[in-house]
Structure formats: structure tokens, C-alpha cells
Amino acid sequence: MRRVCLPLILLCFFLAPGYGQLKDEGLAVDNEKLSKKVAVPLSNTLEKVKQLNGYTYDNKYQSGRVGQEIGMIASEVEKVFPQLVYSADDGTKRVHYPGLIPVLIEAIKEQQLLIDQLLVKADEKEFDYQQLKETIKKQSELFKKQKKLLGKLQEQNYQIHTDIEMIKMSMGLEASIEK
Hints:
This protein is mainly alpha-helical. The protein has four helices and seven strands, in the order βαββαββαββα. The chain has a domain at 1-40. It has helices at residues 6-15, 45-49, 74-80, 100-170; strands spanning 2-3, 21-23, 26-29, 55-57, 69-71, 85-87, 93-95. The protein has a three-stranded antiparallel β-sheet, covered by helices on one side. A two-stranded antiparallel sheet has the order 4-5. It has a two-stranded antiparallel sheet with strand order 6-7. A hairpin with a 5-residue loop joins β6 (85-87) and β7. It is rod-shaped, with a radius of gyration of 39 Å.
């Protein structure tokens, strides 16, 4: 038998007593690959987990417990994961909570993959933003240089135009100096 990490042991023990075997080292569940006939990896677990709801409730079937408990509604779980719901001797449906652990692990892995993909996209966007910012800075500097050059060209053009008009006047031609 393979050991399950301590938080999962406690989760399994307190949420679903009676499953697995309680040993000196904690809750042990048969997890060996050899004991499974066909092992098919779970898929699309994140979307399925998003369909589940957690609740707080007062348990009317177990006397002696005081206060609210946390759990799920078996009929809701059954719609998404029918293999995790069983009928108790009294006819009520119950959730096999330890069976949710692999589902939640796979959902977390799927979610982490999405997060990693979004981080890569964000990094790409940041890189694009930095490139765009640098391009705008270069274009702005170029625009300032061109504006300064245009001002000098306008001054030179005015001076040339003025010189031409002065030459026309000295030759007795009609001048048309415009400013």
C-alpha cells in the first residue's frame, strides 16, 4: 500500500471515515497501479469541478454532532461524477469524498496549465508593449528632429524668397514680398 500525504490523510479520515484502512502510519488506500485493471487519466476535470458546489449544513442524520458541517449534495455530485456517489444502507445517497482527491488534483493541474499559458501571454504582451514604447520614443525623437529641420528649411526658404525679391527690386522688376 502507498501512503498518502498527511493533509490528504486527515481530509480523508475526517470527511469520510470508513474508507481505506486506518493504520499506524495514517489512512492507507490501495493505490497500486497493479490493482487497477484499466487506468484512464482523468480529463476535463476543471470544467467538471466548476459544476460542483460546496455547502454548509446541519446534518440531520448524525446525532451527537453540534454545529454546521461542510459538504456537498450527493445528487449534484452524481450528475458530474456518478462513480463518487453510493447509496448507504438507509437508502440515502452519500459522496465518496476521498474519490474527489484525484479529481481535484487534476483540476488544479489543468488550472495551473491555464495560469502558465496566461503568464506566457502576459509576458509576450509586456514584451510587445516595451517594443511599442521604444518605437514611439524613437518616432517622437525623429519627429522633433524633423520639426526642427522643417523650421530651418522654412527660414531658409523665406530668406531665399526675400533675396529673390530684393534682386527683382534692384533690377527694377515689381517685387512681391510676402511674410
